[in-house]
Amino acid sequence: AQSVSQHNHHVILSEAASLELGCNYSYGGTVNLFWYVQYPGQHLQLLLKYFSGDPLVKGIKGFEAEFIKSKFSFNLRKPSVQWSDTAEYFCAVRPGGGNKLTFGTGTQLKVEL
Amino acid sequence: SAVISQKPSRDICQRGTSLTIQCQVDSQVTMMFWYRQQPGQSLTLIATANQGSEATYESGFVIDKFPISRPNLTFSTLTVSNMSPEDSSIYLCSVEGLVMGTDTQYFGPGTRLTVL
After folding, report:
1. C-alpha to C-alpha distance for A100 and A97, rounded to whole angstroms
2. Which residues of B touch A43 (CB under 8 A)?
3. DSSP class per residue in chain B
């Protein structure tokens, strides 16, 4: 069975700082990878996804993530965070061709003015 | 993406009672799922709601405790039966396989359940 690790549980940054949230998964086969975001008081939204092709994927609101197969990682990045990026971020993995999404424990990001 | 709604948005229930949560999508979808997010934890898949047949449950979840219905391609219900305080969670439905053929899960707003 697949599993997902998000090592940073709480991150506090100042506006304009750069962001990198770690995500590692364990699964031996082809995977689809996702980052979801949950803003305060809102429901879970898709930020970006990777299925195949260019390992650097771009999502909404200036976020991007890089799939490094050799490291089983799919880290989320943003060069300059904004106060409005304060949210909880979830990494998720699904076996290629499968339906079951396995989520990491989430990273709570707080951006201070 | 589709518009996904859940009812109720929140509820406070007494131990031993049952609550049925509804999930409605504004377009037909192939797959519907139910998740649980316990306080301070991540999302855990409860089951896949199959249209016209019994749901497929994940390890640790059983039909007697979490009966699920999916009468058509836009609607599903999850019942939390014989509730205890340990069932206090956010319950979310998600959908996949929209008309436009996406293979990504989209989530409803969730139902926040508190069991006293």
Report:
1. 10
2. 92, 107-110
3. ---EEEE-SEEEE-TT--EEEEEEESS--SEEEEEEE-TTS-EEEEEEEPTTS--EEPTT--TTTS-EEEEETTEEEEEE-S--GGG-EEEEEEEE--TT---S-EE---EEEEE-
Q: Name the pLDDT band for A68 (thresholds 50, 70, 90).
A: very high
Residue A107 in tokens: 């990273």
Helix, strand or coil for residue A100?
A: coil
Task: Looking at the complex, report in whole angstroms how far the Cα of residue B24 sits from the nearest Cα belonging to chain A.
Answer: 15
Q: Using a CB-CB distance cutoff of 8 angstroms, which residues of chain A are in contact with residue B43?
A: 44, 90, 101, 103
Taking contacts as CB-CB distances below 8 angstroms, the residues of chain A near B5 are none
Cβ pair B48:A99 closer than 8 A: yes
Using one digit for the tens of pLDDT, what is the confidence trace for B34-86?
Answer: 999 998 788 999 999 988 888 999 999 999 999 999 999 999 999 999 999 99
C-alpha dihedral, B83 to B84 to B85 to B86, nearest 10°: -100
Burial of residue B52 (CB within 10 Å: 0-12, 13-18, 19+) is exposed
A64-67 contacts: CB < 8 A, separation 24 or more? Answer: A65/A23, A65/A33, A65/A35, A67/A33
Decide if A45 touches B, using CB distance below 8 A. yes
